[in-house]
Design goal:
Shape: globular
Strand order of the largest sheet: 4-3-5-6
Structural class: alpha+beta
Number of strands: 10
Oligomer: single chain
Radius of gyration: 23 Å
Length: 307
Amino acid sequence: GGYVKFAGDANAASMPDAGATEAAAKDPGNFHAKPVWQRALVVVAGPMANFILAIVIFAAAFMIIGSPVSEPRVDAVMPGSAAERVGLKPGDIIVSIEGKEMKSFDDVVMAVIMRGGDELHVKVDRKGQIIDMVVVPDVVEDKDASGNVQRVGRLGIQYNAEQGARTYERLGPVAAVAKGWERTYFIVDMTLRYIGKLFTGRESAKQIGGVISIADTASTAASMGFFTFVSAIAFLSVSIGLINLFPIPMLDGGHLVYYGIEAVRGKPLGPNAQEWGFRIGFSVVVMLMVVGTWNDLVRKFASVFGS
């Protein structure tokens, strides 16, 4: 790929040098001479492109391959599970979770996966009778196809336990885009919930992964079929866009913070303040990369030596 630099940018991080302000005053075409809102739109455009790409990928997959079709029906309840404790029974239809309509069993899985330990209000259709329940999904450690262990929420119910049937329905353009938006929103929501739980001590930083995890996930997804592979690409695109919006100097989100301060103050932060901000931001990014790589290596050694 290539990188196109705006006139006036000193580097890829859009950090102006000491003479940027003076140059901007003399050249109206200079990036740093543009109004704050225009510079902010330029910065937001990158992450937005990631989100739009994910929606397009999902939509194309739903139109070409189709969307998994499954009724939000309980076919089996696992002994000792959260579902058993709350009284869910085989044959129950899950109507809604936290007020959101459940159209498929996949919707149920996505509504619960990042809500382990949280109280969820569930509406169930039992032979025509609507029953309100409050269920707390169990938090379990789940190993994916790449061997990565993740803490997820689980009700302990199964769909089509005996037949294991799974069909796909091709969607029209409008429905496919809507479904693509829904999947993209789910990834953003799931990531933000994880970060929130990470800061409150309810999740472990051991789940953070690096380039090795990305490579493993891509390889595994490719072996599991085209739909899974393109879904992994879309997931990665959303993750990149979301990470770029984090309020860390050096990332797009950090620039937006600087522009917000500039809009309030009427002038940008001084060069020293910006420089220190970028240094701190760089340190945070490097630290996250080190943590992710370390976790990847630990998982690799554990999988090799069986510990």
